Amino acid sequence: MPENVKAAHAGHANGFSDTTTTTNSKHNDSPSIPKPNGAVKGGPNLLPFYFNDWGNAQRLLEVYGADMRYCHDMRKWLIWDKKRWCPDKTGRAKYLARRAMLVFLGQALEDGGSESPHYKFARESLNAGPINSLLAMAEPESYITPDLLDTHPHLLTFENGTVDLSTGVRRSHRREDLITKIVRHNSSALAKNDPPILAKSDPGILN
């Protein structure tokens, strides 16, 4: 099992693990733009995992695991969008799963060519059935429960950072805050006219 999958499982007690954050930093360089045949260069080594749905779930989490959590109560994936954990309403999880398989395809092509077992399996893994299956297998490996979300009473996330309402200090967005709501304004612009605390009760600017 890849280290970040172990970390995700071990970090369920607090909803986020330090190891997962570290793992994400290892993959800050996104895979390059797909080549004409769809294969993607770069990313962590995905070749050693099994040739089945479970192996593909591990591949997904190895590439994008730091940015994905599944909430069984909501029946949705939550995707880190660089500012907050956003409930997936657009099929982003499927997009990331497909991208992970394209990374796998690119590595298989470079490693053994288009006739290798890795390449043939990676190509088949891009079909709808395997994509849905790998996501289902990944759900219990990277889950989160609702009681761990939005638990900080003094943290409010804006477009340009997260403000600690108890101090007025703004800092960068952080995965480990487990925030799902965002005020669709910059904190400095909003503060000129409205106390930031009011944004929590205004459904027009918080979602």
Q: Briefly, what is this?
A:
By secondary structure, this protein is of the alpha+beta class. It is 36% helix and 11% strand. The chain is built from 7 helices and 6 strands; from the N terminus they run H-H-H-E-E-E-H-H-H-E-E-E-H.
Oligomer: single chain
User: Approximately how much beta-strand content do the residues carry?
Assistant: 5-15%
Give helix and strand order, one letter per element, not per position: HHHEEEHHHEEEH
Number of DSSP strand runs: 6
| Biggest beta sheet attributes | 3 strands, antiparallel
What proportion of the residues is helical, as a percent range? 25-40%
Major sheet strand order = 1-2-3
Number of domains: 2
Low-pLDDT residue spans: 1-37, 189-193, 197-204
Count of DSSP-assigned helices:
7
Mean pLDDT: 80
Shape assignment: elongated
Distance between the termini: 36 Å
Radius of gyration: 19 Å
Structural class: alpha+beta
Task: Give your account of this protein's structure.
- This protein has 207 residues and is an alpha+beta fold.
- It folds into 2 domains: 3-146, no CATH class; 155-201, no CATH class.
- The protein is built from 7 helices and 6 strands.
- The protein has helices at residues 3-10, 18-26, 53-64, 92-112, 117-124, 128-138, 187-191; strands at residues 68-71, 76-80, 85-87, 155-158, 161-164, 169-171.
- It has a 3-stranded antiparallel sheet with strand order 1-2-3, with no helix packed on it. A 3-stranded antiparallel sheet has the order 4-5-6, with no helix packed on it.
- It is elongated, with a radius of gyration of 19 Å.
- The two termini are 36 Å apart.
